[in-house]
Write a structure and sequence with these properties.
The chain is of the alpha/beta class. Helix 2 packs across helix 5. The mean pLDDT is 92.
């Protein structure tokens, strides 16, 4: 799961053009809430739910613990937080490296569930990179998930077709916002979350060299940023003499909308 800046707040960047994740209110990425929900449903549908442990994992600053706590309030059993100043500025490649090391630290897993993308970066590549690093099959962009024992089958909706993809566990699964609304934490869940374990790891705990992550090791970088220009007044098309349709068509054509 990713701790992201609140999209309703004023976004800001640091002097090095990285996203300000400290001075801007943060929260659990909405797209990752769907991943938490599907992980919880997999546990609930299991023939022996008590044998299944759902662990919420996040890499981020101190505030990312709040995102993990929300997952615990929703019903996750345990949390894991990788927090290390050296991680700041990491790109998707480095992020997948840290996540893979954290998953290996947690232990043997059956299913790694991810959101389809982060609401701040929107790259959608970390699940695939994570699968490669863990040497696991990937079934990504699932809109419908079916499982029986160690067999998984998903439906992936594309622009021109729908695919049905199958795989066996262990695997990496990413889910879209079409899988179903995420549950709200109940009062009981909020109280229970206070007693659930939440482990914190530094890079040294994971065996990750700090020189392989962070802004200096990133393969991608933001060159510059600028504020969105203020909205200007729109064009009003009148139809006093029956020429409105023609004027509207010409306007849309000039903007290459048609």
């Amino acid at each position: 799961m990713k701790y992201v800046p609140d999209s309703t707040a004023d976004q800001a960047f640091e002097a090095d053009n990285t996203v300000d994740r400290v001075g801007v209110p943060g929260l659990l990425s909405e797209l990752d809430e769907y991943a938490v929900e599907q992980a919880l449903q997999l546990k609930e549908k299991n023939s022996d739910p008590d044998s299944v442990t759902v662990t919420a994992l996040s890499v981020g600053p101190e505030g990312a613990a709040d995102a993990i706590r929300k997952a615990l309030q929703m019903g996750a059993d345990a949390g894991a937080h990788v927090v290390d100043d050296a991680v700041a500025g990491s790109d998707a490649l480095a992020t997948s490296k840290v996540l893979a090391a954290a998953i290996n630290k947690i232990g043997s897993v059956d299913v790694v569930v991810c959101g389809m993308a982060s609401t701040d970066g929107g790259m959608s590549v970390v699940p695939a990179m994570l699968a490669e690093r863990l040497d696991l099959p990937q079934v990504t962009f699932a809109s419908v998930i079916e499982s029986q024992d160690n067999q998984f089958r998903i439906k992936r909706d594309g622009d021109t077709a729908t695919e049905i993809i199958g795989a066996v566990t262990p695997l990496v699964l990413s889910v879209t916002d079409q899988t179903g609304e995420a549950r709200y934490p109940s009062f009981k869940g909020i109280m229970a979350a206070k007693k659930k374990p939440l482990e914190s790891y530094a890079l040294s705990d994971l065996g990750v060299d700090a020189g392989q992550v962070g802004l200096s090791a990133a393969w991608t970088a933001v060159e510059s940023t600028e504020a969105r220009p203020p909205r200007t007044a729109g064009t009003i098309v009148t139809d006093e003499d029956g020429s409105g349709a023609t004027a509207l068509t010409e306007f849309l054509a000039s903007k290459k909308f048609i």
